[in-house]
Amino acid sequence: KSSSLAQLGNIVIVAGGYNDPANNYETDMAQVANALVDRGVAHIVWVTLRAQTDDYRRINDVIVKQAPRWPQLQVADWEAASRGKDWFNPDGLHLNAAGALGLAKLLRPYILAACGSQCEIASPPKGKAPQNVRRPVLRGTPVVGRLLTCRKGSWIGTEPIAFSYR
Question: How much is the pTM?
Answer without folding.
Answer: 0.69
